[in-house]
Amino acid sequence: MTATATDRVFNFSAGPGVLPEEVLKQVQEDVWNIAGSGVGIMEHSHRADTYDRVLHEAFQDCRKVGGIPDDYEILFMSGGASMQNALIPANLLPDGATADYLVTGYWADKSAKECKFYGKPHLAFDGKATNYDHIPQQSEIKYSEKPAYVHYTSNNTIMGTQFHYVPTAPAGVPLVCDMCSDIYSEPLDIRKFSLIYAGAQKNLGPAGTTLVILKKELLEKAPRPLPMTLSYKAFAENESRPNTPPVFAIYVVGLVFKWILKQGGLAAVAQRNKSKAKIIYDVIDSTGFYKGHAREDSRSLMNISFHTTSPELDKAFIAEALKEGMDNLKGHRSIGGMRASTYNAMPVEGCEALAQFMKEFERRHG
Which terminus of the chain has fewer Cβ atoms in its 10 Å neighbourhood, N or C? Predict the structure, then answer.
């Protein structure tokens, strides 16, 4: 079995995804006794001094990593991105108003459907006709007359497509972005956005918390009264703990922020991510045996979806890869094939091992 120096395999899961090994080792210690407190992180009160420090450092390091200015609020929430699909229109969309959605994949489509509970979704782009194999150019996006906001998904985990530019919304219209699978994978110009969000379980930490970063001015514009646990303003006023927060998940996200800073920040992480993805795409491009789902100009650096020449060989590929120490390569049921997720914490060695296996598999089965 080809793996790291430990007994771990290379985990190509789309989510929950791979975590940095040094973070996991720190977690092992802190589950037992964090910071010499004699109590493990999962046992600490969310009002304890120990957790105060953990939470405040997570806020601070999140700002450092992303260059987040003071006029943006940082929230740690629960319910995943699926909850945010409903909370965004609940907090931003007046009754009966229109919000524009760029539908570039499965999750983007789900986001637009949640809007219907509060207002009218307008599909400013819909890639369904081509099975979401590409990202639209700006000229393909057709906005409605007066959208309350524009929503798009920066990286489509299933289809393996990614925006390599930030769409321009109509003047004065808030731009909202689902960054679940590529947040903090490259430098971020937060000033282009009014709100971004991401479930932690792909690039930031374990499942259990969702990062929301939004302009503070939005907190005063809620179009309707909301229950405390659904209100961005309530979370902002209570340091993301109007009720008991997902303490452990937020703690791990805080460790991942520190890890990103140690790597040299987002510029260094982005360069490594480009190099890792290229290792795999070069194999796909060198042969007719493998075919990627995404159009070449829309390829994701985080999720590489591809097929061999038949479903039977796809199945064999997945089984043989597991024997060689590479797990979670099965593609999503909607498109089949394989999917290699190469999030920030995936080591270069994992991508090299997969590329070598792809070449060998083609030699034997091509």
Answer: N
